[in-house]
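Q: Can someone sanity-check these two? First one:
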Amino acid sequence: MNKKSILLVLAFVLPGLIFIFLKIFGNNQFDIPVYYKDGLNDAPTECHRSSKGQYYLSDSVLNKVKWTKGAALWISGLTSDEKKELIRGLESGKPVGLQLINLDSLSGGVWENVKACDLLMKKPWNAVLTDDQKRIRGYYSLSSREELDRLEIELEILLKK
């Protein structure tokens, strides 16, 4: 065989062998970040929050919204059409174990305090994803299609664990 034949065979066979090797021995695993692992450094001063180590949502907040164990998506400031679209999108392939919590349904100014001090939600975010261990896993602006796509992917990753 001449050099060209050997190079041609390698050009076609080598990528196939690499693909098969990675398929058998590889592990495609993605993870989403855990926010505030080292405590709250950027909490608003009016909230009087300080935390050393991992920040967790308080049980008092979770009791207000009747949180059950599992992941939760906290939403706020969506129009009724946006809420309907979000719920329709989630229910079409609704992840098992996801609780949708509408902060706007909390009475009075309670939800503003929860948003600012407990969830640390700033503009332009209007959704927060938390896991079953009460940790914040993501912030989203649901008015953006790209953010909705990111939310869907991160929900899938979070709920697989």
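And here is the second, same format, sequence then tokens:
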Amino acid sequence: MFKMNLSHFEAALLFALFTSVVLAVVTKRTDRDRLNYGVYTFACFVVALFGLGWLMYFGHG
């Protein structure tokens, strides 16, 4: 059986990628709109990932 050994960061990026693709395909009609929305949502996920990560880092200490 194939086993993936991902860090938390890699798993979060993979989740962001797949979620962005699904949201773009489901919500937009043209390929150009899908690409733009997919990139936009992926960027928002990554910004939120880093923002929440730093918030937890500073809140923990």
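A (reply): Looked at the second one. The radius of gyration is 15 Å. The longest helix spans residues 31-60.
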